[in-house]
Design goal:
The protein has 21 helices and 22 strands. By secondary structure, the protein is of the alpha/beta class. Among the domains are: 135 residues, Nucleic acid-binding proteins (OB fold (Dihydrolipoamide Acetyltransferase, E2P)), CATH 2.40.50.140; 191 residues, Rossmann fold, CATH 3.40.50.300; 159 residues, Rossmann fold (3-Layer(aba) Sandwich). Bound molecules: adenosine-5'-diphosphate and magnesium ion (MG). Adenosine-5'-diphosphate binds next to helix 9.
């Protein structure tokens, strides 16, 4: 594509405002503004959703009924027709195959096309070829007028396509909608696909060849303006791919640079030195009926070394369900207490905070460590402290357990040496930043509920060091997972009877939608009634999220002690519940859960030495897309493997929740699944910061402005 600016459209730049361009109609401008397109760059940075190969087809005599074709046709005759409906029809012949017979082009509901055509014109036409009553017909084809004997027809055509140039100075005919690989964009309300494609083409044509697109050019040998043209109007598939990779690298770089910058900032800020003799840790560990696994010991050693350094710790603790992350985190908290500071554990939900609280009270019952649970009620913003000593009254070090909301409170815990963020899939990238900005500079340990795909560790968590607990405690029984159709319920029930009679316990999980409190309550109770009818000889309990804290505690205690043999529940059991004697989990409508969530649920069984069984009930057929995830669960119990599959099947937005993922809008998803691209972007980012740590060089001025802007933006006060 050649650049050809005209007198009234000088070269355009990425930040040229759309409303200064005379060729965009007020109606189109309104439609573009409605989707936040204000500049040339805003429009051009939209990547095609896909491409359609509209390169010219072989001569018509070789084509078949139903094929999508692009042909050059000469108009023989034109006029209105009527059958069941009025339509405009051109009769035309293949310009390269005059003996190939006639083709009829028909337009329904588009009266204006009658003004565009004249006999003798050469058209380029794209559409689906069909045989109708023995004739070749293409209905509502896309088209371009290539040459004509009638100047008037050409002018009209030009006007219809939005070419405002005066007659005589028309650019040579260009293929925009036909005769090439054509970009297809997600539709924008109020602007036709054709107009939008034409707009892109016109903006690209008028683009300044040396326009500056980025804060930093990651691939100078492939100029951005060229890549932009290749992206929208590629000559072939390979060119389109090459352009996409160039944009993916640049998008990835923007993210990795910000992460590298943040990491250096936090390393250069002073933190606390934690000196410990492991007094409390030893006290805790000696009271446990088991030893730490070598992997747990290694992680604790890594954390201890971090905490002893004068710079703040920023560490991610990863491990599969049941690998014993909580205990590692607790040891870190005890080191902090011993050295005279408080430690906070931030859980994503109230239920989890309460469970951690109970668990810690139990584990530390023989020590003098103080533990506070802080629950915050959004409605009245009051804080309940379930502890005899209010935090404000004395500032002696303690463990404080609460939800993430603790971070946002005015009376954040004083004297905070360590914050453990139990993220459970809700990764707030800015949360860590909050601490650093707030002046308190505690060590930070982030725990994940399930393993994270490697590419995400390299991007979202690239500013963290990583510790991985890569083994489960010994003596865990095998877990067998099977997919079953509910029609086999009879056999399943007799299996449950046998297991319970052998002394085991059973979870029955249902995907209850939390529409309203009453509906969850009633559907859970119905499920309970059903199972009490089905298994009348056993004692059956109920656990769901809308029960009061006391009810929940009682339900869990009854199940843990074996008073109830079956627990009918919602995904509340996904985390925290820990009953080694429970060996069977029956999951209703298993296909309605996410892969990682199912893995997390399954983690509730297989905790003791008995063999365990996870039964996924579902009616999905093998060709159903959600069959694959159930299949994966049956085949592997490795959380790291499952995370990769989950990511591949659903994409990062769904795995993490787009808003919470910190990924925001991703335009070129290529990089998220390409470790090499991430490594390359990271290398570029680090080499810039190695050479110019404060970004003082003029070439880095734009980067510096961006970073300073990003820091203030991400931390609203
Ligand atoms: P997760 O990593 O899923 O958070 P938890 O910390 O909840 O795992 O630990 C799961 C269970 O394993 C708990 O009951 C815990 O007490 C137990 N556990 C932790 N470490 C060990 C170990 N080294 N040996 C045996 N059991 C352990
Ligand atoms: Mg846990």
């Amino acid at each position: 594509m050649e650049a050809h600016p005209t007198a009234d459209t000088p070269y355009l730049l990425p930040d040229s405002a759309l409303d200064t361009l005379p060729s965009i109609s007020p109606r189109e401008l309104k439609a573009l503004h409605a989707v936040s397109f204000y500049t040339v760059g805003d429009v051009l940075r939209i990547a095609p959703h896909r491409y359609e190969d509209r390169r010219f087809s072989p001569p018509i005599s070789t084509l078949a009924n139903g094929e999508s074709v692009c042909l050059q046709l000469r108009i023989y005759s034109a006029g209105w027709r009527f059958s069941y409906k009025r339509y405009y029809e051109l009769s035309a012949g293949d310009a390269h195959d005059p003996q190939g017979g006639r083709i009829l082009l028909r337009w329904f509901n588009m009266p204006y096309v009658s003004k565009l055509f004249a006999v003798g014109m050469l058209l380029s036409v794209y559409g689906k070829l069909r045989i109708v009553s023995g004739k070749w017909v293409i209905c509502n084809p896309d088209f371009e007028i290539l040459d004509d004997n009638e100047q008037a027809g050409l002018r009209l055509a030009a006007a219809a396509l939005g070419d405002a140039a005066p007659p005589g100075s028309l650019p040579p005919p260009s293929f925009i909608h036909t005769g090439r690989i054509v970009p297809i964009y997600k539709s924008i309300p109020g602007i036709s696909a054709r107009s939008f494609r034409t707009l892109i083409y016109r903006l690209l044509s008028a683009l300044h060849p040396d326009a500056r697109w980025e804060d930093y050019d990651t691939a100078p040998s492939y100029p951005m303006t060229t890549a932009m043209r290749d992206l929208h109007f590629p000559a072939d598939d390979a060119t389109a791919r090459k352009a996409r990779m160039r944009f993916a690298l640049s998008e990835c770089f923007t993210r990795q640079f910000a992460v590298a910058w943040r990491r250096r900032q936090s390393l250069s800020s002073p933190g606390q030195i934690t000196a410990t003799t492991d007094y409390y840790c030893r006290e805790l560990l000696s009271s446990l009926p088991f030893c730490l696994t070598p992997a747990q010991q290694r992680c604790i050693a890594e954390i201890r070394a971090d905490m002893a350094r004068p710079t703040p710790m920023n560490r991610l603790l990863q491990g599969d369900v049941g690998s014993g992350k909580t205990l590692v985190a607790l040891c870190a908290m005890l080191m902090c207490i011993e050295s005279g500071s408080s430690a906070a554990l931030l859980a994503p939900t109230q239920i989890l905070a309460e469970q951690h609280y109970r668990n810690f009270r139990h584990l530390l019952r023989r020590t003098d460590v103080r533990i506070s649970l802080r629950t915050s009620d959004k409605a009245d913003d009051s804080h309940l402290i379930i502890d005899n000593s209010p935090i404000s009254a004395d500032s002696s070090p303690r463990i404080i357990i609460g939800t993430h909301a603790l971070l946002y409170e005015k009376n954040r815990p004083q004297n905070l040496g360590l914050a453990v963020i139990d993220e459970q899939h809700k990764f707030g990238v800015t949360q860590r930043q909050r601490f650093i900005q707030s002046g308190a500079n505690p060590d930070v340990l982030v725990m994940t509920a399930t393993p994270i795909p490697r590419t995400l560790t390299l991007t979202l968590y690239a500013d963290l060091d990583v510790s991985i607990i890569d083994e489960l405690p010994p003596g865990r029984g095998e877990v067998i997972t099977a997919l079953r159709n509910p029609s086999r319920m009879k056999r399943i029930i007799s299996f449950l009877r046998k297991e319970i009679s052998d002394g085991r316990q059973v979870y029955i999980v249902s995907p209850l939608i939390e529409e309203s409190e009453s509906s969850e309550r009633s559907s859970a109770s119905q499920e309970l009634v059903h199972w009490r009818d089905t298994l009348p000889e056993f004692s059956i309990g109920l656990l769901h999220g809308k029960m009061s804290a006391d009810e929940k505690e009682k339900a869990m205690a009854d199940f843990a002690s074996g008073n109830t043999q079956v627990l009918v529940c919602t995904t509340v059991v996904e985390v925290g519940v820990d009953v080694a004697n429970a060996t069977v989990m029956l999951i209703n409508d298993a296909d309605s859960f996410g892969l990682s969530q199912l893995h997390q649920l399954r983690g509730r069984i297989g905790r003791g030495s008995h063999k365990s069984y996870c039964i996924l009930l579902s009616t999905v057929k093998p060709d159903d897309p959600s069959h694959e995830k159930l299949d994966i669960l049956c085949k592997t119990s490795n959380g790291f493997e499952i995370a990769e599959h989950d990511f591949r099947l659903r994409g990062p937005g769904d795995v993490l929740g787009t808003a919470q993922s910190g990924l925001g809008t991703v335009r070129f998803a290529e990089w998220i699944s390409d470790v090499r691209l991430i490594h390359r972007a990271t290398r570029i980012a680090n080499s810039i910061l190695d050479g110019d740590p404060e970004l003082q060089l003029p070439v880095h001025a734009a980067l510096r402005r961006r970073m300073e802007g990003a820091v203030t933006q991400s931390v609203p006060s």
